[in-house]
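Fig. S4 source data, part A: sequence.
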Amino acid sequence: MQSQILTKGYYPQEIEAAWASFWLSKDFFQARLDTDRDSFSMVIPPPNVTGSLHMGHALNNTLQDILARFWRMQGSNVLWLPGTDHAGIATQNVVEKILAGEGKSRHTLGREEFSKRVWDWKEKYGHVIVSQLKRLGASCDWSRERFTLDEGFSRAVRSAFVQLYKEGLIYRGDYVINWCPRCRTALSDLETELEQVTGELYFVDYPRVDGQGALTVATTRPETILGDVAVAFNPSDERYRGLLGQRVRLPLIDKVVPVIADEVVKPEFGTGLLKITPAHDFDDFQVSLRHKLPRPRVMDEDGRMNEQAGPYQGLDRGRCRQVVVDDLGKAGLLRKVERYTHTLGHCYRCKTVVEPYLSKQWFVKTGPLAQPAIAAVQRGETKIIPSSWEKTYFDWMDNIRDWCISRQIWWGHRIPAWHCASCQEIMVDEREPIRCSACGQEELRQEDDVLDTWFSSALWPFASLGWPDNTPELAKFYPTSCLVTGFDILFFWVARMMMMGLKFTGQVPFREVYIHALVRDAEGQKMSKSRGNVIDPVDMSEKYGTDAFRFTLAAMAVQGRDIKLSPERIAGYRHFANKIWNAARFILMNLEGVVPSPEDMSKDHLDLADRWILSRLKSVVQATTAAFKEYRFSEAANLLYQFIWHEFCDWYLEAVKPALSPDAQPERRAASRGVLCLVLEAVLRLLHPIMPFITEELWQKLPHQGVSISVASYPDASTGLSDDQAEKEMALIMDVVGAIRNLKGELGIPPAYQLEATLMTEDAFTLEVLRSNRDYLITLARLKGLDLVEQGSPPPSAVNTLADGVEIFVPLAGVIDFTEELKRLGKERGKLEKELTRLEAKLANEGFRTKAAEDVVAREQQKFNKLGEKREKIIYWEGKVAQLIPEKGGRSEK
């Protein structure tokens, strides 16, 4: 081995792109069909083709990549299948904006030409997020990349639609759906963003036909009064039982409607009476079905009032509300108006308020599909992690509504249904029919609507593997091993994949589902451009290095807890990468081109620190392996951080330095080199799934076997040596050294300053361990002299402290000026007490406690507690130092 000296600084930008290209050029990440190795498979949640990498993508794909790399190193045949989603509404909006800039629209182009323009855009810009994922280090099998509109996938979509239709699980009918008046299309629940808004609650009188006054109804949408067909109360509400069967007159228009009783009404809302508008409210639509009520629409698809609205025809819905409210006031029918906070749906693309709208759409009958998906989780065929999400899954599936799958746009999977112009027969088939199956006419028109993007996404785990064909990929990799996804699409995507997977393959789509939380800003706020708190993952990778960024996400990915991210945290883990780099540089410099042999590390040549670090390594291998297998990413990351930074770098590297000097015994020097090399190489493999770039760079510089760390074996049970005795003895050494270091710090003595020390213990075993490892104590504690005694008098002018049953005395005469040190401690205590007084007043302020965010209050309380602990320490040392001043008590006494 030639000497491999590293540069003094670690510059991730110089190595990351090169290793990303190297991995891809060697096809290390391709799954094999011709192997008997156990398979581990995942499908990537396909990002929108319009997208660029955001923090949610970064977390989701980092966690998946950790799993892919870990299981690959475990020897599994890993398939991590990538792909992108055609994102119907989002992509169409992008291209329509471009056309608008050219003074065109999709309608002026026509469907075929518009589709061509979208494909052209996709080919030019649709690769952005894929390139960013590769830059993140995503070890997908890129040779199998899929797109939800590619030919094979489109065939799967048609096949699924036709089968569901022929079994009566897809139907066409009039139902209330989420409608965007601007985009002119139906929206799924996921495409509808709920926002809390403050508006008005209007109390409106509905005159009774019998002349006995009026019924007052509270509503947030007075413009829909024009489409009311009834007024309802809850059957349990004794206030209105006598009104059942009565009739009232709609305000402003000459229309009489009945008073009915229905469980949907909440007696505590408003006056306990509810206006029923079936064409413009989800609950009211269900009421109309139960009571066989008419369902008139008073609004068109663009949000304007139609002929059913009488004198208000042609008004935009917003303007209509203003006019109706004015007219109600003039007619004396507006009882009062109150401020009211409620939730409104907005289109996820254009932010327009969504309209519940009665429309003829295509639906999936989800009830029969949901039951097998519920049972599969109950039986444990699919395990949801953390398990707390199972209840949410069951609640949603038990109350599932039929799924509106049609969208009034042009980009997407066009519904494979054809309408006969002559007899209106509808034919559904995978191939275009030549003539009508009912009347034989050949004038057929294909359905204009396309399928909801989530319909094709629901087929992703098996259609991406070649279904409906029985492909080798499907046989080998399905069901997939796990799915990693955010909780926000548990219902809309995970549940639907469960339903479709079981329906079309008879098997669950994945054995395990790991649900991760959201990435928020440092204050716990959701990231958004409007708040200006977005952290760009690409910027973070460029500034701090991809490995530091990935490690931050992993270290903070605690199950069930949102991640509060800040650039400062990423910068902190950049220091961790530097620490690893500098440790490797130190080791490589001391190897001097020598390749250690196993014989060098025979037990006869190993010292306490060697045996200790090898035992700690074995424990860390076992704990980290278990953590990765159980999706405890933060635990794995923090185990490695603690071991690498503190145990390996801070303790072992310092302890072993004397053994590496040219004056050391050759056997000890060789043993130390061997242990250093062995531990570092194992550490790099342990760390590789989280920090792939720096580990590959350093591993290639060390003695190793194989062409890449990405396909090397993960450390196993044979790594390291269990040695409980060594760990116990080293723990004692570390406690004593730590106590001396802390003493220096508390008294402001520089860490490198060499002190005298006396260690006193009556325990024979402890004393023998200290004597056997005297050199370690002197090296690690930076001592110039050390006495080890069973008992005796303390040295003069010494302060003392205790560690693990060992009393430690450090003479300070000539080291510090006791009088000046007492002044320094007093001054520091004064500053602390001033800050404590300020914090105490702040925390006692009821206004602060009630108005400030919970985590802000907790942070201030934590700060107060820490400062209090620091003050107690200073008081303690003031007492100790005071004893050393002759006129204040003479020298220290035992």
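Fig. S4 source data, part B ends here. The CA atoms of residues 732 and 766 lie 8 Å apart.
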